[in-house]
Each structure stands twice: as structure tokens, then as C-alpha cells.
């Protein structure tokens, strides 16, 4: 006959409990568990056990052992502790084991006992030592709070972004507080401590005395305090055997109970009763366990999301299981399978006994080009393990060349980084690499590298043009790019130099460069410019007025307009100004001056190389019909009609057109026959047309 | 005139969303600097900004005073200074000098630099070198697409042309890729992609990377725009270097359209004030004439004026009720039309006046001769005279380049003499201009024996292609121009040309033609397949836009234009010119 309730024992009046072994722990303890430092991670995470810690009666030569077990008791790691005395152990939210040493050093280990990093809780602790430490969890991450030998509290609210905060002094605190805990309220970490009958709340700026709401009188000391996992609730155990349970703010009492046991309990923790979802406190003494609870909690927490669950599996290297879960839940690849594969790969690169080739191949075979997998992240991990060659091999699988660049730079493969940056088409990335190269290489090598990368070279040149002109010159020099050097010095002759000698010198350098570039045209033109500049300077000195930087044409025009015809002629000869230009120039200048007499003299000086129609046009532009007519008669037959029309002699234009028997000219004249006076002319043209058609 | 689109022509997507996006982002950025602040705006950004957020919107977000970024010390007394600038080094030096001056005076203020459309590492580096990087906060205003019209998006980046095609600087390509990515996020993926030129290829590839990185965003979206063409400006310089003969192009050449609007001076308005006119499809009169050959425009406008007068005249003989009706319903529209008409008639007269003065006929004749490849000697003399008479430095340069491109480089003698003449006329500093033009391939010297080859003779064959003949006179010279050709050909609009693709490629002076099919599943509707986005890298002219609009109307397609900037021959030449510092 089965007796299902046989192993149930009563607990108080209304509850029963039973005890049975869930898992058999694989540890083989010689000493009592109470003599070990123990830390169990939340959410059924691993358990850390520091055996044989520093006990006075033991010989100092015996090294303690740090062991890590899964929650079900499987050994995960075991290592000999070689560092200093450990005060406290605790797990962070990321399942990293924080070992707080007496000297303020905190050593961080992974789930498998792999050393991650260490940090210090401040120099102050070196002298004073740490008396006690707590690891606590906030929404930002996991924090460490310590109590120093000088009875000061120091805390860091997030160990992955370490900022140490020294809490204010507690007035009148001579010895260690009887009990204390870290609280987290309004996103800020506080310390609650008990000194005799008083409770103090420490925040960054102040230390304030607090009293729990509705606390029974007669308390002369608080022996134990416990804060709930969510930091919402607090339980206090006093020397009168009285338990106060309320909100962590102490402003609300949920329940109180007098257990009549005055001995300080070994442990007091919050728990919840599964069925009633009530919040309760478990108090443990040497041989007694008590559950006190009357705090209904309506909200159910789902703290552990799927992502976190997967992370935990990955941490335990249970990759196939994690992948199966992802597939079962049909998670998108990027969040699910790809991420787990990437983690697997990061683990894989740490296997030092496998060759680079094999690791790279294995990873690529498994990952292929799964979306969401970043080969550069895996490569970064490989580099972190000191496997540079493997990292480079892995980077080759990275399809986005831009992603390869930061790691390549870190690994000092700057030239390869440059080609990858160029491949990516991201000019900003190229520029970043260039700055790296510039600092890393000597100038010559830097320039040589640029020379082989036209895209980068253009980019850098553009920058130099605005910011580092001298470097630009060096770049051209390096390349023997004499053409650009010439242009550079011409620009310099305008930009930098004020004095004429300086400008001419810059131009001379330019001309020399152009000769070297075998650009005779540019060299000659530059020499002409030097001559012109010197001459313009002289003209300014001798004649006054502005000449500098005028074009040759404008220089001559200015001379004519100023009445310096001789000088103008001389200049035209010196610079071999072609006849056509000179005629256009003089014509325009003299007409501007309205020096009709001089213009006529000029027109008769020799046969005009530009014909006489321009003379007619320019006179008409100045509204001088009288002068225009003089030149109209000298216009050659081809342009005669046009000239006559310009001066308004429609009748004669008609005669010439008829004489030429030119249909286009006839139409042109006809289109000019507008006024009543032109009626006869129009008729004449029509008749001529008719006659021409008869023939 | 301006015959309507075919009934089956697809609807254009609504691009006003781009403006709203840009405005919201700008407001967000301004709000990042809470409280009153003075805003310093780079001159180039003023007009684009005005199209996105006017002064009252800026004031609403606590912008107190507005300043132009110029090389002068700031007089602002505000405690917070915000700079809205292009990512240029000289701007950084300006900001740095301001901050350093404050430091010297022992003054502390808040400074924020908003880069548009993106920041460059080099800029931050300059801030760092000047020792102010820690004092300034930097942000990006990813405003890269300004809808100038219902079918025209401009990136308003005129420097793209010089930076890429002259200096070989590729930094704007990323901006282009970002802009394309934005378009595909908003308007669905582009099922068919084509590109001509190196820059097109690079832009396309960068864009693909962006799309892959954010895969899934556009997945499953129906494409709204069926085709996209990416074209490098240097594939065809000829079109851009020709005088424009359609109305909108001429207005641009004559008055310079800036950011979709133009300032008509007193000579147009026939009053003593100038008038800023927005030129887009909303202007009903302009919309009818913008794509027309100029010679038709005047007649059209006077006919329109007569019709308008007739409508006004209907008033006579109306009874009171009819009159009331007329005043309340028609008069406003008529007045509006009247106003627009008089503006455009004024503009036409002014253009005519200027063009007759400059012997426009002669100029067009020369250009025509150059395009057709006859009377080269006469054309060269014409250009020489143009230079000798100092008609216009930019015009002279343009003609020289046109001669060089159409003749595959100038013969050595002309190359030297035209340059000499040019330097004498317009100043020796243009030696640098010539060096630039040579580098960009715009003005080159013929290599010995490198005259018209077999390939070039095929060019002329392209010109006389019969299909092209169908297109009106206004576009006859456009017909030979490569962009237009390439697009027509791809869409099978113009009968296939007898030349093989390799020859065309050589003609187009480019190495690759990337034809890609971007979507595997064919979800594109037939309507979307008749919407075509043409991306001009390095700018496009209004003539090119008109030509494609014309083609679209003929064939029931709609073209959408995305350009790094609207350009014309003068702007291209100015970009290549070196001016004395």
C-alpha cells in the first residue's frame, strides 16, 4: 500500500513540506559546506564553491580550490586558487563569477573557470582591507558593494562600466555594522545598514537615519536583514525574535511576526510559495527552518527572456540544444541560429590545439554565409586569443570589406586595411586608415603606399589642398608629377605671395616644372606671364592706375584708353599680339573713347584684317550713323548688304542685293522694308524676284 | 502645344514625403539644442533649406537670428550657436575660428554643427586639429533629395561634378547610394537597373551593400518605379555643352534657375522691382511651354494672351448676376493666368533681346556645324574671333570644349593657338583651367594620326538615324547624344541601331554597362514598368529633361529625374575654371 503522504512533514499549522534529493551533487566535500564560500547564480545558474578558504587553523601553504558546478551538480571547472584571500563570491547577471579579494582586487571568471579580467575597488582598500562584500543586481547590470576596514562603504553599480562611488561616512560608526545590504531604488544603489537599534540609509550624498513603518518597540539590535530578488521588499530580524516584513523603502509594512527565537539566524532569504504566489521569508538556524509569509504578490515576473535563456545555453557550450530551441521556436535566423553559430565559432577559435587552417575551414563550413554572422567579430576573438594568422584567414570570409578594416588596423595590417577600405567604397573609412598609415609609416613609405592606391591618393590630395599645402607639394614631388607641381606653384603665385618678386619667383619655379614635364606650351605661357607681371608693375609705377593681373588684352586696352598709344603699340609688338586681335582691340577701345578721328586714321593705316563690317557695327552701337556710313562704303561685297542695312540704307541695300542676284540677301532686305517709305524698294525687289524666276 | 500625356501614362509617385522627412529631421536636430539659438547657414544651403522649412518654422523651434556663413567674425550674442553647413573644410575652419575667438575672450557657449547631407571624417579631423573638437557637437542632416518638381529630384550638390570628374574624389558616391537607398525604402525596390560609367557602377555597388545590410525592409514591397538608369556625366559632355533651345533651358542659361526658382530682374518685370518666380508644374503657363523649342513659345504666348483677353471681354454685355458669377468664380483664375503670362512674355522678350545682341543665330549655326562635323575651319575661326573680341570667357571656353569633343581633340596647331589667344584675352591664370579641362577630357590635343576613325564615322551614322528624324527639330541634335540614345535603345523606343554594343560602348567612352535584374520574383506591375528613374551623376540640363519628357509623352512612359544638381554649359565650365584667389 502506497502512502503518498508518508514523507511529508507538517510546517506550522497549514503547510507541509517534504525533502527529497533533486540532484546528487558531484562534490566530494571533506569539510562542511559552511566552511566554504558558496555562491549560486540566479535562475538556476551555476554554483561556485571555494573550498578550504583561509582559516586560521589551516596552514598557509595549503592552497584553496575554486570549483564550479552546474545547478544540477555537474562539475564545470576546478582550479587551484593562487591569488589573495577571497572575502566574497558572487555571480553577475552575465554569469561571470566575481571573486572579491581582501585587498580590493576583484577577479572575474567565466562559467568554465576561464579567467576574464580583474579590476580593483580602489587604492584605499589596499591599506584598510575589505571586511565584507556583496554582489547585487541592478537594471544596469551587476554591482559590487564593499565594507572597508575603516568602516566605509564603496560601491560600483555596474562592474562592466566600472565607476567607484565612495559612500558618505556613517556618524558614530566604530565597529562593523551588525548587518547591511545593498538596495536599489529609483535606479540608484543604496546601502542599508544597522548599528545597534538604528538603521541608516546611505546614498551618494548623505547618510540618513530611517525607521521602518510600524516597527514594534523594544528593539535594541537588528541581527539580520534580507532584501527580495526584485529589491522591492525587505525583511528585518531583531534581537527580540521579531520579524518585520515590508517594502524596501521601509514606508509600508506587509507583515510582522514574533518567532520568540532570539538567537541570530544563520540565513534569511525571500522566497515565494509556488501555489499561492505569496511572498515569504525563510529563516534558518542551525537546526531550525521557519517560513514566514503573508505578503501577496500579484505580479509574476518573466525575467528570463528567450534571448537570455539562449545566452545561458551558449555559455554552457550547449550549442546543438540552443540551435534546436531556436528552430523549434522558429526564431529569425539573425536572432537565433546565426547568433549561436557565431558564438560557437568564437569558442572554436580558442581551441589552440587545432591548426589555423582547420579552424578557419571548420568555421566556414558550418557558417557559410549565414546572414547575421559577422566573421569580423569571430576574427576579433581569434586575435584576442593571440591568433593573428587565424584572424586574417577568418577575415577573408567577411563579405563586407568595410567590416574587416578596424581589426586589420588593430593587427597592424594597415596596408591590407587600406585596400579593404577602398574596396568598401567608404571614403571615410579610407581616410581613417590613411591617418593610421600616416602615423605608422615614415613619410616616404606613406607616399609610396598612396601612389599605388589612386582612390586614396585623390582623397588625401583633396584634404591636403585645403589643409596641408606643403604635403601636397611633397606628394607631387614624390611622384615626379611636374605638371601638377607647375600648377601648384602657379596657384601659390596667386595665393601666398604679395610682393611682385615673390610672385615672379613662384612663376619661375612653375615654368621650370613645366619644362621638366615637357609641357613647353605651359612653360612659355608662364614665362610670358612673368614678363607681363614685371611690365605691369613698371606701368603702374610710371603711369599710375591699376595694371597688375590684367590680361594682356586688357593691359593694351587700358593703355589705349589712357592715351598711351605708343606704349600700347610697343606692348603689342613685344608680346606678338596677332593683327586680328589688335584690330578688334583698337577698334573697341577707340569707339569707347569716341575718338572718331583716330579711328578713321587707324582704319586707313592698312587693309583691315577683320574687314570693315565690325567698324560699321561698332559705330552704330555708339549711335554714330555718320561715322558708320563712312565704313559701310568700304565693306566688301559679301557683307555689303548687311552693312547697308545696319546704317539704315534699305534702298541701296536692295540695289546691291539685286545686283548680286542673291535670294537670301533679297529676303533679308525685304524683311527690313517696314516703313511706308520702303514701299517702293519692296516693289523693286519683288519685281527683281519675278524676273529672276522667269529666267 | 504641350500635348498631354497618353491616357495610359502612369501616375508619378508622391515625392512630397521627402520634404516632410527632411523637415522632421531638421526640427528634431534643432530640438537637440533646447532653448534660443542663432543659426548660421551656408550660402549654398539657403535656397534648399527655404524649400524645406521657412523662417517661421525655424522660429517655432527657437531659432533666434539667422546668419550666413561667411568669412567674417560673428556678431551673434546668443548663448547657443548652431551651424548648418556642407561638409567642407573651409567651414570647419570658420567654426573653429569662432570657437577659438570665444575662448580667447573667456566666453563659453554651446556650439553645434549640423552637416548636410552627411559629415566626413576629414571635417572632424580639422576640428580636432584646430583644437575645438571637444567644444562642438556634430550632427548629420541626411537631407539629400530635394523635390524641385513633380518629376525632378535634386541632390543640390553641384560640387559633385568637379570633385568626382576632375579631382577623382569619390566621397559623394556614398551620398548617392544613401539617396537611392532612401528611395527604394520609400517607393519599393527597382526591378530593373542599368548603368553607364564608372561612377554609376560604384554608386550601384555601394547602394547594393546598403540594401543588403537592411535586408527585409524593402522585402515584399511592390515596386513603384520599374526601371532605374544611372548615368555618368562624362559619358556625354556634348549635350550639356550645347546652347539650350527649349524654354526652361533658355531661362536657365539666361537668368540662372536656382533651386527651382528664378529671379526675374526689372528688364523682365518692366517695373523697378525684381520678382522671384517658382518654376514648376504648378505654374500652368510655364508647364505648357517649358519643354518647347523657343521659336514656338512666343507665338503660343501671344495666342494665349489673345484668348485671355477674349475671356475678359466676355464681361461686356453681362447682366449683374452673370457679372457676379464671373467675378466670384473666374476672375481670380484669369488674373493669376494674366500675371503668369506677363512674366513669361517679359522673360521671352528679354531672352530675345539678349540673344539677338549676341548673334545667337551665328552661335547656333556654329554649334550645329560642330555637331555635324562640317566646316571645321570656319567654326575654329568663329571661336577665335569670339575669343579675340572677349565676348565671354565662359562661352569661349564652352565652344573650345565643344570643338575638342566633337573632333576627338584639337589638332596641335589649333590647340596651341586657341589657348594662347584665350590666355591673352582672359588672363594667364586660365593656364590652370586648361590643365583641368585636359584632365577631365574636355579640352585635349589630338594624338598624331588620331583623327576621325571608323568608330567616329559611326557617330554620324547615329545622327542620321531615321527614327531620330521623327523627333522634332528641337531635339534633332539631342538625338545623337549618348544618354538619350542609350535609354531609348534599352527601352526599344528607337529602332535598333545597326552598330554593335561594343562600338557603342567605345563611343560612350566607358568601360562597363551594368545591366542587372534586381528582383527575382516579378512583382512589378505593368504600370510601374513604365515609370523610369534616370539618375544623372554629375548633373543634367533642362534640355535633357525636356528630351526625355518628350520621349515619355510619345511612348506612354513617365520619366523621373534624379540629378546631383541641375546644370548647364556655363556651370560646367565654371566648375572647371580657376579663378584668382
TrEMBL record, chain A:
It comes from the Eukaryota. Pfam families: Vps16_C (PF04840), Vps16_N (PF04841). One of its GO terms (cellular component) is late endosome membrane. It is a peripheral membrane protein. GO terms for molecular function: actin binding. Residues 4-302 form the Vps16 N-terminal domain. Its main location: membrane. It is found in: Late endosome membrane; Lysosome membrane. GO terms for biological process: endosomal transport; intracellular protein transport; vacuole fusion, non-autophagic. Belongs to the VPS16 family. Core component of at least two putative endosomal tethering complexes, the homotypic fusion and vacuole protein sorting (HOPS) complex and the class C core vacuole/endosome tethering (CORVET) complex. Their common core is composed of the class C Vps proteins VPS11, VPS16, VPS18 and VPS33A, which in HOPS further associates with VPS39 and VPS41 and in CORVET with VPS8 and TGFBRAP1. Interacts with RAB5C. Interacts with STX17, MON1B. Associates with adapter protein complex 3 (AP-3) and clathrin:AP-3 complexes. This is Vacuolar protein sorting-associated protein 16 homolog. It comes from Puma concolor (Mountain lion).
TrEMBL record, chain B:
InterPro entries: Sec-1-like_dom1 (IPR043154), Sec-1-like_dom3a (IPR043127), Sec1-like (IPR001619), Sec1-like_dom2 (IPR027482), Sec1-like_sf (IPR036045), VPS33_dom3b (IPR043155). The keyword Protein transport applies. Signal peptide: none annotated. It is found in: Cytoplasmic vesicle, Clathrin-coated vesicle; Late endosome membrane; Lysosome membrane. GO terms for cellular component: clathrin-coated vesicle; late endosome membrane; lysosomal membrane. GO terms for biological process: protein transport; vesicle-mediated transport. Keywords: Endosome, Lysosome, Membrane, Protein transport, Transport. Its main location: cytoplasm. Coiled coil: none annotated. Pfam families: Sec1. It is a peripheral membrane protein. Belongs to the STXBP/unc-18/SEC1 family. This is Vacuolar protein sorting-associated protein 33B. It comes from Puma concolor. The lineage of its organism: Eukaryota, Metazoa, Chordata, Craniata, Vertebrata. The gene is VPS33B.
Amino acid at each position: 500500500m502506497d502512502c503518498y503522504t508518508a514523507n511529508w512533514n507538517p510546517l506550522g499549522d497549514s503547510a507541509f513540506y517534504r525533502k527529497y534529493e533533486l540532484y546528487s551533487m558531484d562534490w566530494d566535500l571533506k569539510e562542511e559546506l559552511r566552511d566554504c564560500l558558496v555562491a549560486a547564480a540566479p535562475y538556476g545558474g551555476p554554483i561556485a564553491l571555494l573550498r578550504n578558504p583561509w582559516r586560521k587553523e589551516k596552514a598557509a601553504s595549503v592552497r584553496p580550490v575554486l570549483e564550479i558546478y552546474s545547478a544540477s551538480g555537474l562539475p564545470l571547472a576546478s582550479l587551484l586558487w593562487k591569488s589573495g584571500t577571497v572575502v566574497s563570491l558572487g555571480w553577475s547577471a552575465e554569469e561571470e563569477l566575481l571573486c572579491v579579494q581582501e585587498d580590493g582586487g576583484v577577479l572575474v571568471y567565466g562559467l568554465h573557470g576561464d579567467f576574464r579580467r580583474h579590476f580593483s575597488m580602489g587604492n584605499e582598500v589596499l591599506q584598510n582591507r575589505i571586511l565584507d562584500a556583496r554582489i547585487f543586481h541592478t537594471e544596469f547590470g551587476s554591482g559590487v558593494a564593499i565594507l572597508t576596514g575603516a568602516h566605509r562603504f564603496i560601491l560600483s553599480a555596474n562592474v562592466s562600466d566600472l565607476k567607484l562611488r565612495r559612500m558618505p561616512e556613517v556618524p558614530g560608526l566604530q565597529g562593523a555594522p551588525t548587518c547591511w545590504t545593498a538596495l536599489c531604488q529609483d535606479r540608484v544603489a543604496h546601502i542599508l545598514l544597522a548599528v545597534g537599534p538604528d538603521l541608516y540609509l546611505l546614498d551618494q550624498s548623505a547618510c540618513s537615519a530611517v525607521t521602518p513603518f510600524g516597527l514594534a518597540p523594544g528593539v535594541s539590535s537588528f541581527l539580520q536583514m534580507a532584501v527580495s530578488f526584485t529589491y522591492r521588499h525587505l525583511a528585518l530580524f531583531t534581537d527580540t525574535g521579531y520579524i518585520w516584513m515590508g517594502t524596501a523603502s521601509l514606508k509600508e509594512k506587509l507583515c510582522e511576526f514574533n518567532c520568540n527565537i532570539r538567537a541570530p539566524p544563520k540565513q534569511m532569504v525571500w522566497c515565494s510559495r509556488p501555489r499561492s504566489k505569496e511572498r515569504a521569508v525563510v529563516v534558518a538556524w542551525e537546526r531550525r527552518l521557519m517560513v514566514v509569509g503573508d505578503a501577496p504578490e500579484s505580479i509574476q515576473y518573466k525575467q528570463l527572456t528567450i534571448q537570455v535563456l539562449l545566452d545561458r545555453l551558449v555559455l554552457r557550450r550547449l550549442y546543438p540544444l540552443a540551435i534546436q530551441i531556436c528552430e523549434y521556436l522558429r526564431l529569425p535566423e539573425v536572432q537565433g541560429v546565426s547568433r549561436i553559430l557565431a558564438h560557437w565559432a568564437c569558442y572554436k577559435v580558442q581551441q589552440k590545439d587545432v591548426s589555423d587552417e582547420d579552424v578557419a575551414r571548420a568555421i566556414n563550413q558550418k557558417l557559410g554565409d549565414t546572414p547575421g554572422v559577422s566573421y569580423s567579430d569571430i576574427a576579433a576573438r581569434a586575435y584576442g586569443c593571440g591568433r593573428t594568422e587565424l584572424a586574417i584567414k577568418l577575415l577573408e570570409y567577411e563579405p563586407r570589406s568595410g567590416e574587416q578594416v578596424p581589426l586589420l588596423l588593430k593587427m597592424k595590417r594597415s596596408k591590407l586595411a587600406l585596400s579593404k577600405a577602398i574596396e568598401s567604397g567608404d571614403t571615410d573609412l579610407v581616410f581613417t586608415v590613411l591617418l593610421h598609415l600616416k602615423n605608422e609609416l615614415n613619410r616616404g613609405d606613406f607616399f609610396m603606399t598612396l601612389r599605388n592606391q589612386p582612390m586614396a591618393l585623390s582623397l588625401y590630395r583633396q584634404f591636403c589642398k585645403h589643409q596641408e599645402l606643403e604635403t601636397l607639394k611633397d606628394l607631387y614631388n614624390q611622384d615626379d608629377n611636374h605638371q601638377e607641381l607647375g600648377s601648384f606653384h602657379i596657384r601659390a603665385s596667386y595665393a601666398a605671395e604679395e610682393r611682385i618678386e615673390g610672385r615672379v619667383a613662384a612663376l619661375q619655379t612653375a615654368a621650370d616644372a613645366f619644362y621638366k614635364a615637357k609641357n613647353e606650351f605651359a612653360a612659355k605661357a608662364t614665362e610670358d606671364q612673368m614678363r607681363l607681371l614685371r611690365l605691369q608693375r613698371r606701368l603702374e609705377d610710371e603711369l599710375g592706375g591699376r595694371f597688375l593681373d590684367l590680361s594682356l588684352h586688357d593691359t593694351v586696352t587700358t593703355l589705349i584708353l589712357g592715351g598711351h598709344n605708343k606704349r600700347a603699340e610697343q606692348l603689342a609688338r613685344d608680346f606678338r599680339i596677332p593683327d586680328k586681335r589688335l584690330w578688334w582691340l583698337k577698334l573697341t577701345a577707340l569707339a569707347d573713347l569716341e575718338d572718331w578721328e583716330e579711328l578713321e586714321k587707324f582704319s586707313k593705316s592698312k587693309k583691315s584684317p577683320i574687314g570693315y563690317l565690325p567698324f560699321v557695327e561698332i559705330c552704330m552701337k555708339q549711335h554714330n550713323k555718320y561715322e558708320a556710313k563712312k565704313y559701310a562704303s568700304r565693306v566688301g561685297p559679301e557683307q555689303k548688304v548687311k552693312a547697308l542695312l545696319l546704317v539704315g540704307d534699305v534702298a541701296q541695300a536692295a540695289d546691291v542685293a539685286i545686283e548680286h542676284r542673291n535670294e537670301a540677301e533679297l529676303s533679308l532686305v525685304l524683311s527690313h522694308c517696314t516703313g511706308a517709305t520702303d514701299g517702293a524698294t519692296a516693289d523693286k525687289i519683288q519685281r527683281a524676284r519675278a524676273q529672276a524666276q522667269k529666267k | 502645344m504641350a500635348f498631354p500625356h497618353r491616357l495610359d501614362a502612369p501616375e508619378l509617385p508622391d515625392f512630397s514625403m521627402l520634404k516632410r522627412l527632411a523637415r522632421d529631421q531638421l526640427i528634431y536636430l534643432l530640438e537637440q539644442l533646447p532653448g534660443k539659438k542663432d543659426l548660421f547657414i551656408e550660402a549654398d544651403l539657403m535656397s534648399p533649406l527655404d524649400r524645406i522649412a521657412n523662417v517661421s518654422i525655424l522660429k517655432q523651434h527657437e531659432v533666434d537670428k539667422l546668419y550666413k556663413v561667411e568669412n567674417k567674425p560673428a556678431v551673434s550674442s546668443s548663448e547657443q550657436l548652431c551651424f548648418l553647413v556642407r561638409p567642407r573644410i573651409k567651414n570647419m575652419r570658420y567654426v573653429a575660428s569662432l570657437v577659438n575667438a570665444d575662448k580667447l575672450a573667456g566666453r563659453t557657449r554651446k556650439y553645434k554643427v549640423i552637416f548636410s547631407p552627411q559629415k566626413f571624417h576629414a571635417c572632424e579631423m580639422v576640428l580636432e586639429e584646430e583644437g575645438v573638437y571637444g567644444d562642438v557637437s556634430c550632427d548629420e542632416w541626411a537631407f539629400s533629395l530635394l523635390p524641385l518638381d513633380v518629376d525632378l529630384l535634386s541632390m543640390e550638390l553641384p560640387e559633385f561634378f568637379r570633385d568626382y570628374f576632375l579631382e577623382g574624389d569619390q566621397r559623394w558616391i556614398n551620398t548617392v547610394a544613401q539617396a537611392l537607398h532612401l528611395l527604394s525604402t520609400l517607393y519599393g525596390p527597382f526591378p530593373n537597373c542599368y548603368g553607364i560609367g564608372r561612377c554609376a557602377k560604384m554608386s550601384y555597388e555601394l547602394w547594393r551593400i546598403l540594401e543588403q545590410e537592411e535586408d527585409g525592409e524593402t522585402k515584399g514591397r511592390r515596386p513603384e518605379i520599374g526601371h532605374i538608369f544611372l548615368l555618368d556625366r562624362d559619358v556625354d559632355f556634348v549635350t550639356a555643352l550645347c546652347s539650350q533651345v527649349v524654354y526652361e533651358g533658355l531661362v536657365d542659361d539666361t537668368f540662372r534657375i536656382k533651386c527651382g526658382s528664378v529671379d526675374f530682374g526689372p528688364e523682365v518685370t518692366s517695373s523697378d522691382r525684381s520678382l522671384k518666380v517658382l518654376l514648376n508644374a504648378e505654374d500652368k503657363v510655364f508647364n505648357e511651354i517649358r519643354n518647347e523649342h523657343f521659336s514656338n513659345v512666343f507665338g503660343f504666348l501671344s495666342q494665349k494672351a489673345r484668348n485671355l483677353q477674349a475671356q475678359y471681354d466676355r464681361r461686356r454685355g453681362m447682366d449683374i448676376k452673370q457679372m457676379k458669377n464671373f467675378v466670384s468664380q473666374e476672375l481670380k483664375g484669369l488674373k493669376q493666368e494674366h500675371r503668369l503670362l506677363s512674366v513669361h512674355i517679359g522673360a521671352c522678350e528679354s531672352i530675345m533681346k539678349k540673344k539677338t545682341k549676341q548673334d545667337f543665330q551665328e552661335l547656333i549655326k556654329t554649334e550645329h556645324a560642330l555637331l555635324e562635323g562640317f566646316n571645321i575651319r570656319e567654326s575654329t575661326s568663329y571661336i577665335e574671333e569670339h575669343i579675340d573680341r572677349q565676348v565671354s570667357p565662359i562661352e569661349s571656353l564652352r565652344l573650345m570644349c565643344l570643338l575638342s569633343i566633337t573632333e576627338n581633340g584639337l589638332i596641335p596647331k589649333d590647340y596651341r593657338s586657341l589657348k594662347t589667344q584665350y590666355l591673352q584675352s582672359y588672363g594667364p591664370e586660365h593656364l590652370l583651367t586648361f590643365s583641368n579641362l585636359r584632365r577631365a577630357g574636355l579640352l585635349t590635343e589630338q594624338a598624331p594620326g588620331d583623327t576621325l576613325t571608323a568608330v567616329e564615322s559611326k557617330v554620324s551614322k547615329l545622327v542620321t538615324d531615321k527614327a531620330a528624324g521623327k523627333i522634332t527639330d528641337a531635339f534633332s541634335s539631342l538625338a545623337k547624344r549618348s544618354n538619350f540614345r542609350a535609354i531609348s535603345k534599352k527601352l526599344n523606343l528607337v529602332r535598333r541601331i545597326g552598330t554593335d554594343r561594343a562600338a557603342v560602348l567605345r563611343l560612350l567612352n566607358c568601360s562597363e554597362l551594368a545591366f542587372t535584374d534586381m528582383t527575382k520574383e516579378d512583382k512589378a506591375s505593368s504600370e510601374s514598368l513604365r515609370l523610369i528613374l534616370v539618375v544623372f551623376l554629375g548633373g543634367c540640363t533642362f534640355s535633357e529633361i525636356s528630351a526625355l519628357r518628350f520621349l515619355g509623352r510619345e511612348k506612354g512612359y513617365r520619366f523621373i529625374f534624379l540629378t546631383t544638381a541641375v546644370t548647364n554649359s556655363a556651370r560646367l565650365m565654371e566648375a572647371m575654371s580657376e579663378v584668382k584667389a
